[in-house]
Every structure is written in structure tokens, then in C-alpha cells.
Amino acid sequence: MAGCAVSNVGLKDVIKNIMEMDVPELVFLRSFTQHPSSVLIMRRYNELVASNPDLQDIVTAFAVYPALKWAQKAEDIDAVMARVCSGDANAQRLINVQKALSDVTGYEPKLMLNNRKRYFEASRKLTWRLEHLVEQIRDFPGEGEIYANILGIMLGDTTADVSKYMTNQYAKAAMELAYDCAGKEIDGLVDDVLTGIVQSDDEMSLIYHNIDILLREYNRILWHTQNSDDRAMRLLACESEEEMLKITEHDEKYRQAYLIVEYIKLINGAIEMVKTFPVNGQEYYDIIRTVIELKPKRISDEAAAERVGMSTYSFSVKKRRALSVLSTILWGCDGDTFVRFLTDKA
Question: How do the domains of the chain map onto residue ranges?
Fold first, then answer.
């Protein structure tokens, strides 16, 4: 019997070790918040996760909130285009073209991005719950106001009037109270955003498009709008109903043209949005624009890096991050990207 007992203990140890290998401890190396106390908060995050693994999901939720909130601006791509492209003649023309096509044809197809819709719905539920939780805690007797302000900093509030000393002193207690109030609920919401939309690697391969190929096609479409003899493509260069009607009044290819407009508009809006990413947005935007401009010329990363004033290694790392940011807006099905931003050593 003693031998069996030892054997069972050994098996339990093996299982425990395997589980620990499969689920490595989360370590935050950077932050999406711009508050002066952000480094202190990042340290408290790591201490909380190390001391109590049950807190990992709620800590992750607070850590990625600024990026999730930012990405939600891309949910309605029409509104994105109206906001960010009011001064961009080419982008505005695309909006006008789409409206004119709709007026002429009465046909209004939409991109079939069901996973994108589900992802944004899950993301909104999570961010709303975090915001509501902070306001709940504000009424907590005694330190409630302090706790709420510290949690607000975690959500990206750069104006919260809390000293570094107070932040350092109360961040742990604030997060533990947040978990006591809504931890289990937030665990489920985090699962929906990070892993609940895409169920398998096969499904991910179908949805998570190769961004390099997408940008290559984007360049080709833009070129064809000006150079193709195809009437459906030439519709994209029109600026009014009259011009469209001169090309065709009955050609069924207008439906193809309309979908191409939707495609270009989605990419344009996403690229413009990258500028406002919580961390290094303008830099990522410049990298993407450089990639788009140089890709048809097959310029190497070394030459592209020199053009934007970076080392080749730095350009390679930031290019990967920039394209990941762009893909989260376009396809809306990989919230894990934001976790990798905060934890990757590169």
C-alpha cells in the first residue's frame, strides 16, 4: 500500500508539472496606459498573478482594456471612414462612390464578417462590465474612491489624481476587491474575447488573413481602379451617378465593384485608425504606409528600415506589431494579440 501511495503522489506531481508547463505564468513587460503610475501598476499586476493565479483573467482584462476600447472604434467601419478621412480626397471619394452605387442600384451588400461582429459584441460586454465595476467600487466604504481612481488608471484614465505612493499602496487591494465583486463573471467574458470567437487553429487559418497578402491585393485593386478596362473596376474611379451611368446602366458587374469598394474602405479605415493606437500608433501607421508603398517594388526590410530611421531588427519587430494591430481592426477575432503586445519579450 505504501508503494501505491508513493506512486500516486508521484503521478500527481507529474500532472501538476505538466499543467504548469502548459499554462505559463503571465508576466507583463509593458502597459497600454500613459499615466505616470503605469510602471507601478504593471509591477502590481505581476505580483498579483504570481501570488494568486485566479486573478490572471481579471488582471488581463484591466491590462488590455485600453486596446479593446480603442479597437471598438472600428466596429462600424462607415463611421470610421467618416471620422478619419474627412480631409482625404481619395478616401472620401470611396465613400461617395459607395453611396452613389447604392443610389443607382438599390443594392447594398455588406461584407460577411460574422466572427468580427461576435468579437466586437464580446469586447463591448467586457469593457462595459469593467467600467461598471469601477463605479460600483467607488461606493465602497472608506477607500472606495481611492480604489476606483486606481482602477480607472488601469483602464487608461490619464487624469486620475492619485499619487504614485497611493497607487503603489492600494493597487493590490483594489484589484482583489474587484475580483471579489465580479471576478467569476469577468473570467467568462475574458474567455469570450481572447479564445471564444475562434474555436480552432483551422478556423483561425480561414479567418486570420495573411496581412501581407491582403496589402498586396489592396495595392493591386487601387492600381486597377485607374488602369483596368473592366467596367466594374472603372466604376471605382467614378465620382458621381452620372459617370457611373455612362459606363453601364444594366451591367451586373456593379455588384462586384460595390464589394470591392467595401473591401478597400474597410482596409483604408483600419489603416487610418492605427495612428491612434494607445502605444506607438503614429509609428505603426508610418511603418504600414511604408510597407504599402514599397511592397509593389519588392523593397527589402533593410531598405524600408533605413527609410523610417530604424535598425533592421527594430523595424522587423515593430512591423510585426503594426500589422497585428491592423489585423485586429480588420478581422476582429484575435484579442490575444493585445496580450502578446504586453508580454512578448521582443
Answer: 94-110+201-343
